[in-house]
Task: inverse folding
């Protein structure tokens, strides 16, 4: 019973920390009432929280019935959820620090249909979670029934470790990852008050010798400040990478791939080889300098690309230029990421430059209008070369190639993102031709995968049509031939 | 399992560009014009008649209203031409939809990828005797195919046919598991 209370409190606190802190601060600052009242208010809230979470806990039920998982929950509103095992995409077990003493984990699973169709069992025993996962992921393939909740399961064919990250890889991944920009964006609103604070203190420091040096050389001061900022951001990014991916291990277990990672918050993710839709090899701008990249494996119901680091996509971090393509073969043995990519037509560069120019000109115009300083319009002179440069970078980045059943689409600006997928995985194919493209006999090919769309822009129309026809053939021929035998021309492990 | 990798004779592939297409219902063009104007005319009225303050002259206001109205008429004209050029085609193994005027899109949805088919009509569509057919895939909303402006009986026939095909496919697939056709 004590355990139950603690867990309830912990869960409540986790979900309501902002509310608690906000309420506490509000009470203390605005009302300036005595400490006792604050303590009483907080303890009343806590008590309420404990009661609510006990009720919530008692109402929370789940059961595995055949291959259907039933979850009942809800405090005021009762929700009943039924998930069939075949629908489950992606199972992850997570163990935050505060759950570790109790030996419980958080079990969450995705079903196709976007981000909303996810369900979570917030605190179940590890053994239970393991067997649940076993049951849900083996049920998709006809397997011997082992419903026993505490059964260890039959011995799997010796899991094989594919990749284990080292401290060097971790650090480099942190340095190269785009999370630097995210952190910078988070810090941006903090900067201004910080500056104000600094200025107030600087006035007191006026007579100190080294401050005098900086006052006389503002460029030096600015440069040093920027450098310090970059170093701090990099430090934070590395720490984030260590927290998230410490001890990252990728294991092949029959048809499944399992990854373990996390320093405090242990996470386990499972990917079923059959449900894999596309693989992306990503190198950020810094990653290209450091010669590092990461792989992202995509399944149905693709998450937005920005969510790569949010923890739900199956990401393999800190790979060197040799390891990356090597590891991609573990998923699809015939996949070769290296090769010569076709460039798209040079007109694409012009189109992209035009697009950038329009956006930049709008930006310049808006700044000039808002600040009411017409000299901003001089920036127009810079816009055109800049837009052309960006267009050129984009054109250099975009490329495509086909190799047997696989298609590869590369995109980016300074970084590179190469998506590889078996063409038989296409859901729909679209040939798109703008009025401008039509006059020049060009077209854009768009292949919609279950994990999201891939575009090959500005290639000759006949090439686009040939690719479309070929792709459709690879989708439709196996389907048409499948009179009972549905075999797909993609190598699975 | 070994990888099948026989080469495909490119010239013998069924060509997308040679597929025969059927234009959508002729009533779709007036419907598009009507629905476009239904958006623009109230906007023009709001711009023309809104109390913008005393210092804005009547003339300027009317000019703004006429400008918005002109934009509305322009986009209605485009919508008319676009609607007359929309077409769809049903091949043995896929469904083709051609749409767009300035940007022309040819979308192909293989029948084996269809998860579910739906027909729908809005009140305005009903007044014009039109029906919309939506084919859902496993690829999320970006990969769904919407055929708008079909005559109800055409839409119904296409839907019946596609559902029949989907049912046959599901019956031939060995496990009725929900792993979408791959």
Result:
């Amino acid at each position: 019973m004590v355990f139950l209370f603690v867990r309830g409190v912990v869960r409540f606190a986790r979900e309501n920390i902002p509310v608690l802190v906000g309420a506490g601060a509000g009470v203390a600052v605005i009302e300036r009432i005595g400490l006792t009242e604050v303590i009483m208010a907080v303890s009343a809230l806590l008590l309420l929280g404990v009661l609510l979470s006990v009720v919530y806990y008692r109402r929370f039920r789940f059961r595995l019935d055949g291959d259907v998982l039933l979850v009942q929950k809800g405090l005021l509103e009762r929700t009943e959820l039924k998930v069939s095992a075949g629908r489950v995409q992606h199972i992850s077990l997570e163990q935050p620090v505060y759950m570790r003493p109790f030996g419980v984990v958080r079990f969450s699973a995705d079903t196709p249909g976007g981000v909303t169709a996810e369900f979570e069992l917030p605190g179940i025993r590890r053994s239970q979670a393991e067997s649940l996962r076993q049951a849900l992921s083996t049920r998709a393939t006809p397997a011997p029934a082992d419903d026993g909740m505490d059964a260890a399961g039959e011995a799997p064919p010796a899991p094989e470790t594919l990749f284990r990250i080292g401290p060097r890889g971790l650090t480099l991944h942190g340095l190269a990852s785009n999370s630097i920009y995210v952190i910078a964006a988070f810090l941006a609103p903090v900067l201004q008050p910080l500056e104000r604070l600094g200025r107030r203190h600087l006035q007191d420091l006026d007579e100190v010798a080294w401050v005098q040096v900086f006052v006389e050389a503002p460029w030096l001061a600015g440069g040093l400040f920027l450098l310090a900022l970059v170093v701090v951001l990099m430090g934070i990014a590395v720490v984030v990478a260590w927290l998230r991916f410490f001890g990252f291990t990728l294991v092949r277990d029959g048809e499944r791939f399992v990854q373990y990672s996390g320093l405090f918050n242990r996470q386990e993710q499972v990917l079923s080889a059959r449900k894999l839709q596309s693989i992306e090899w990503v190198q950020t701008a810094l990653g290209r300098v450091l010669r590092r990249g990461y792989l992202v494996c995509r399944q149905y119901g693709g998450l937005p690309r920005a969510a790569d680091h949010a923890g739900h996509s199956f990401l393999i971090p800190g790979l060197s230029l040799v390891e990356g393509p090597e590891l991609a073969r573990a998923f699809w043995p015939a996949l070769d990421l290296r090769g010569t990519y076709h460039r798209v037509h040079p007109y694409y560069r012009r189109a992209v430059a035009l697009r950038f120019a329009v956006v930049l000109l709008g930006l310049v115009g808006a700044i000039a209008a808002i600040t009411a300083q017409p000299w901003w319009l001089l920036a127009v002179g810079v816009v055109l070369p800049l837009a052309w440069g960006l267009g050129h970078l984009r054109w250099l980045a975009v490329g495509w190639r086909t190799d047997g059943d696989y298609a590869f689409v590369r995109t980016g600006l300074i970084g590179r993102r190469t998506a590889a997928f078996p063409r038989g995985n296409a859901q729909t194919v679209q040939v798109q031709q703008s009025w401008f493209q039509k006059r020049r006999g060009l077209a854009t090919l768009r292949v919609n995968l279950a994990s999201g769309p891939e575009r090959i822009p500005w290639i000759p129309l006949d090439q686009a049509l040939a690719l479309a026809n070929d792709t459709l053939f690879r989708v439709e021929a196996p389907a048409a031939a499948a009179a009972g035998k549905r075999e797909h021309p993609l190598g699975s492990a | 399992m070994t990888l099948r990798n026989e080469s495909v004779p490119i010239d013998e592939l069924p060509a997308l560009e040679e597929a025969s297409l059927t234009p959508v219902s002729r009533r779709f063009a007036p419907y598009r014009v009507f629905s476009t104007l239904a958006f623009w005319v109230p906007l023009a009225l709001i711009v023309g008649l809104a109390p913008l303050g005393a210092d804005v002259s009547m003339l300027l206001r009317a000019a703004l209203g006429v400008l918005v109205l002109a934009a509305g008429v322009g986009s209605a004209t485009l919508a008319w031409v676009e609607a007359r050029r929309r077409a769809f085609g049903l091949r043995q193994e896929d469904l083709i939809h051609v749409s767009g005027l300035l940007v022309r899109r040819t979308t192909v949805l293989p029948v084996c990828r269809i998860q579910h088919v739906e027909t729908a009509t809005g009140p305005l569509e009903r007044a014009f005797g039109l029906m919309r057919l939506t084919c859902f895939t496993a690829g999320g909303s970006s990969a769904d195919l919407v055929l708008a402006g079909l005559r109800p009986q055409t839409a119904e026939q296409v839907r019946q046919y596609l559902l029949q095909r989907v049912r046959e496919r599901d019956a031939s697939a060995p496990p009725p598991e929900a792993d979408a056709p791959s």
In short: Chain A has five domains: 2-59, 70-150, 168-245, 276-344+398-481, 347-388. Chain A has 13 helices and 20 strands. Confidence is low (pLDDT under 50) at residues 140-156, 305-310, 483-493 of chain A. Residues 2-59 of chain A form one domain.
